[in-house]
Structure formats: C-alpha cells, structure tokens
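Entry 14. Ran structure prediction on the chain below.
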Amino acid sequence: MPNCWSRLRVRRGLTFITGLVECLCFAGIIFGWASLVFVLKQDGYFDYLCVNSTGINGSQALDCSEQDEQLSLVFTIASFINNFVTVASGFIFDHFGTTVARLLGIAFHTMGTLMVAFSNSALSVLLFPALSFIAVGGVMLLMTNMQVGNLFGTRRSTIITLYNGAFDSSSALFLLIKLVYESGISLRACFLFLSICSVLHVLRTFLLFPRTFIPYPIPDNYTYGLSCSNLNIARHSINVSSRQTTKSEEVSSKAAAKPGQSATASLHPEKTLRECVLSRLFIWHVIWLSVIQLRHYLFIGTLNPTLQKLTDGEPTLVSQFINAFAFTQLCGVLCAPWNGLIMDRNKHKPRAEGMSEQESDLNSSVLSLFLTSLMALVFSICAATPVLSLQYFTFIIQVLNRSFLYGGNAAFLSVAFPSCHFGKLYGLIMAISAIFSLLQYACFALVKSVLHGDPLYVNIALTLVILLAFVHPLSVFLHCRSLASQRANRQLTDSRQLL
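Output, structure tokens:
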C-alpha cells in the first residue's frame, strides 16, 4: 500500500508537469499572432489584396494595407471567439465532465492546426475557421487543466495562476515557428507536428485525469486515472468522488469540484447560478476584468502604429521593439505564480474562530485585486506617455499585469463562488468581457477620424476608466468586513445564551 500511494504522488506530479507543458505549448498560441503574420505574408496569404500604388514622388510601390487588414481581421475574430465561446465551454465542462470537454477541445485544436497545415495562398480563407478552432480548443485545454490545482490543497491558487501564466506565455510558440521557418522548415511541417501532438493530449485525458472532475477538498483514499493496485477503487473514485465528499461531515461543501472549491460553512446553503451572477461581487468582478482587458487589447492593437510614430518610421527600431515585446511575453509563466502565492499566503495560518475557508480566501484576494488594479493604472500611464525608451518598461509591466489579471480572475472565481458553477461563471465573464472589448474598434475609429491619428485623448480617457477597477478590491474588502462583523455578533449572541 505505501508503494501504491507513492505511485499516486508520482501520478499527481506528472499531471501537474504535463498540464503545465500543455498550457505552455498549446493552449494560448493564437496570442502570438504577430509572429505568425510574418510567416503568412512570406507564404503569400491574401497577397492578391496587394496593389500597385503611386508614391508622393511619383515612384511605384506595392500597397499591402488591405492584406494587413484582412490578416488583422483573422486575429480579431479568433480573439473574440476565444473569450465569447468560453461560456459554452464552461457549460460543457460543468455538465459533461473532464473527458468530454477535453476530447472536444482536442478535436477543435487538431482541426485548426490541420486547416493551417493544408492551407496555402490560394486557400487563405481557411485561416478564419482555423484560428478560431485553435482558440476554442486552447481555452478548453486551459479550463480542464485548472482543476489540477485541487490536487495541491494549500497551493491551489498558485497552480491556477501558474497555468494561466503558461497560457499567456504560449504565445511565444508562434515566435518559435517563425524562427524555425526562417531556418528552412515549412509552415505545413510545423503545424502537422502540432496536429500529431494531439495524441499526447488524448493520452493525458485517459491516463492522468478523472472522467468527471477533480474534487476539492480531496476525499480520503482519492485516486484517479489508472489505479496502481485496486481497479474497483479507481473506478469508484472516478465516478463517485467528484460528485460527493464526505456527506457525513454536515454536507459543508459539494465536491463537484472544478478548479477549486472553498469549504463553505454548512450554515449557508449553496448559491444558485442566478444568485452568483446578480451578486455585487460578480458584477464588480466583470467590470474589473473588462476595463483592464480593454486597455490591454487596445495597446496590442495599436502597438505597431504607435512604434512607427515614436521611431519616425525607422524599420530597424520598430523591429527591435516588436521583438522585445514578443520576448517579454515569455515571462508570463514566471510572473503569474506570484499572484497565486499572494492569494494562498494565509493557507498555513490558523483562522479566526468561526471564520470559514471561503472568507479567509476572500480576505487574501483583496491584496491581489488591488495590486492588479494598481499595475493596470501604471501600465496605462506608461503606454500613454510618448517616450520611446519608456516602452521597454511598458512591455514589462504589461506582461506582469496581464499575468496577474487572468490568473487572478480564475483564482477569484474559484474562491468566491461554488465550484459547481465555476465553468459557467468563468465562461460567462469571459464572454461579457469579450463583448466589452469590442469598444476597441470605436476607439480605433475615433483616433483615426476625429483625432487625426493622435491617440492622446483616448489614452487619457482609458486611464481614467481604469480607476473603476479599484472599486472591486474595495467591494471585496467591505464584504469581508461585513462577514467578520456578522461572525462577531453571532459569537456574542452565542456567549450570552450560554450565560
């Protein structure tokens, strides 16, 4: 039996490591689009949109602005779908479990990579469904991997944020494809290799995941995947342990555990999905995520023209800063765990008498939410400042803030609301923020027409909007203080009854 448990520990370690690799190499690769565009243009995708034009001095030049616009539209649609369909992915995950969600995500991801592999300049239109499929598949891989944090109890939030950081850093894969392409390997070969890697995703699904969910808290004798000694126990754990914890313990929490369920006091019934969505915590969390995400999307979307303006169109300098921005994205996986450590900092400390684990986790999240909002404000100010050398620092604070934002988003949802609603709430908030992010196009149009290409006033307005993000940590702080006051009054009432 000791040998059995040592194998289970090894299996948990393999689940964590392979999940990290999966998120780092496959889940969020579409956000490295800027690097892939270079390869696509070299291979002539949408090159029929390039036309000859006459320059200022009468010289002939090739105008490829419509090609750039079409390629930009591919990413715009894919990034929108990446967020918007997450609500559907969440419902599938919540209702059908890990195996179904992962197999569906793997199927989407594989179809997308195969479409890119067998596309060419004559079939450029295949990029539209291909990148969208890759985006949807990547989100489903991330969502199913985040529950791995449940296996590591006191480090749950750290694991969740680490996986989200790996999701951000996976954008560097397209940079790697660009470098490999320049060394002589074709785009088709690169994407065929990504398609073949789907076999590994399928093996992980059946060997290193339960059929339903990983529960939290982890029940005694819990196992998953292939049992080391008792197949009957394994089958029972896979089918049952995700649906129930120790019901004899006052039914303190449902163990339908997606990426983390805080133990809620048994005195309080579990909230319905409607109650969660209409709660003050969720509404301000939506606003918090949406305003910060909009600032990031607008920054990325206007980065190239901004650098063109700051460098007076010097191509070498523009390329230098674009490469610097691409390499800083690699640091997302290193930055994100710090946010998780902030949220997990009270796990090993004794809680106040009567304080639930959820209340303790919410208390810990206040600092995380505040720091994320503060970094967003600093980032917005730096991005709005027209100083070229300052942009290196802007890139650093941008990737740090982005890592805190998305990792903190998932971690907060996992501690603030019942885990049986995690997939739906995660999907819903990403869908709402995706709709809100469409405001970037209004900002683009405003800068181009009314402001004659000068984004200064839009940047100032967005910086002021960022201030709304500070309301969320304040709201959570007041909520926690209210819970503490209710607990104190309850203890006072109990003590008087005893007297």
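The beta strands are 51-54, 60-63. Will compare against last week's run tomorrow.
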